[in-house]
Amino acid sequence: MTSPSSATVTAILLGGARPIADPLATAAGVPVKPLVPVAGEPMINRPARALLAHPAIAQVVILTQNPEYFADDPATAWLASDPRVRFERGGKGIASSLLGVMEKADLPFPLLMTTADHVLLDAGMLDQFVAQATGADIAVAMVERTTLLARYPQSRRTWLKFRDGWWSGANIFWFGSTRARPVIALWQDVEQDRKKGWKILSAFGPLALVGALLRILTLRGGIARVGRRFGLTARLVAMDQAEACIDADKPDDIVLIESILAR
């Protein structure tokens, strides 16, 4: 594994709620989605443990609007008492909350951000991502469709098509320095349209939009080009593990995740 020689990475674990009620949380009778049980425990526990167990991670910051939900739940109270875990109160949007966290001087870069519903996050994914993202100002983990469908043909994702394949997000992001702030600010502007790939691309300029529509751009090249526009190094990390893009977003996802964990 190629990674930092000591624990230097600050992990941001998104544990908040969207403005509208989450159907999984409503069905489970819990106040927020990260407390929805998956394989017998709240989903946030598994990615939190994976992060804390990894040698590159110095601390885990849980970004949420309601830290008390986790402290008050017996199954997640351990997060509030772990010395390497801290809670930061987030706002309505991921990007604005992340920008707020970045302002704190005691949260050093690099930052690795992932989500509470990334239940299958494990050491292998973190090994690959940290190794390949180190040195970049921004890196994003993605899974190419053939990687996922070779193992889980029943899994349905949101795909973006480029010349080098169909890609789906793996909910792992890297912010290597303060130079990432302008891109996050742009993300804040288009956050409400994150499922509409063309709208996100258009925010990065007409060349990116036309290139994607005509299938003349590779995703790797497109991400690097966006980075150059902002004067920084931006990188795609194409994840080897199909499980990297399976998150607990729908009831069918939970069924699949629990079958994977059972194996």
TrEMBL record:
Keyword annotations: Magnesium, Nucleotidyltransferase, Transferase
Domain MobA-like NTP transferase: 33-146
Any one GO MF annotation of this record: nucleotidyltransferase activity
Organism: Sphingobium scionense
InterPro entries: MobA-like_NTP_Trfase, Nucleotide-diphossugar_trans
UniProt cross-references to Pfam families, sorted A to Z: NTP_transf_3
Name the record gives this protein: GTP:adenosylcobinamide-phosphate guanylyltransferase
